[in-house]
Design brief:
Rossmann fold, elongated, 12 helices, 17% strand, alpha/beta
Amino acid sequence: MGVGRKYTQKDIAAAAKVHPSTVSLALSNSPTLADKTKERILKVAKEMGYQPDPFLSQLATYKNLGRQGIFRGTLAFLINRHPLEKSPNARPFKQYLVGSSKQAETYGYQLKVFDFDRSKITGSRLRQIMIARGVKGILLCPQPRGIDRIDDFDFRNFSCVSFGYSLCNPRFHVVNNHQFHAAMLCMQNLIRVGCKRIGFAIPQFHDNRANNNYLAGYMTHLAKNPNLPTLPAFTGDSFSLNSFSEWFNSIKPDGLLTVPYRLPEFLQQMNVDTTQACKLAIPTLNDSEGAWSGIDEDGEAIGAAAVDLLVSMIRRGEMGIPAKPSSLLFEGVWVENESFIK
């Protein structure tokens, strides 16, 4: 079988002695079909050399959308709360949320924010609520500081995509800004404006959440530019002015790859001129950071891409924890203010 003829789902149904609709369920990995039946049908399809027609698949998707109306289901935007967080941001990761919500609507889904606050709800109860509200897929926000796993929620029967690398267990497919590229681009621009002693001042906890991609980009660029000295990275307490100033005064950098909070404030308190004496490059800028130069990651585009991936997984019936998680990375754009080139 499978030579000289293009087989259809009806042919598979006849060979497997099932209804064509059952074949359709098996090929879409539907959870409503028994595993034994699904495996038997897939084996028959493979033996016959069956290959789906992408144009017919697209037409079927269009017909199903029209049959079900505009609303097809709900996607969850899951915010995992830290148990010790005293004043949580009601809607963190605003750009991801806006981009995800807009893109979900184009597929006929609504995006619903779910707060996983364990002082108010258990993982099993939250799962029940999601199922009752027709949630088919979950977008997982970056995890709060100090949290890198979720052990008290059953992700089976949900398609899942994670923003960034902060969630280590379970591992899902990731959509994120290209942090290694962002660090490399920052280094390139610091060198362009004449910096010769570039320090790395991204707190360890922050770089760890980025899978150490910022430090990797920094070190790689130094390796490609042997004329630049390799300075000790800042490993002190990012909440301590004394710790930071001691490090800064010991290495005397004229440029810094750093984060947009706390450390730039320390520099101001130390009366360091960040337009002349030490220029700053931020590998991940937010809306409120127009005073700094760095990488605009375009969070809305990342949010939209996460929905694209999630919807494609739902259509393929991919649920639970993937055997081989993949990453989809977006290169950001360098933006600078006038003071950077003075």
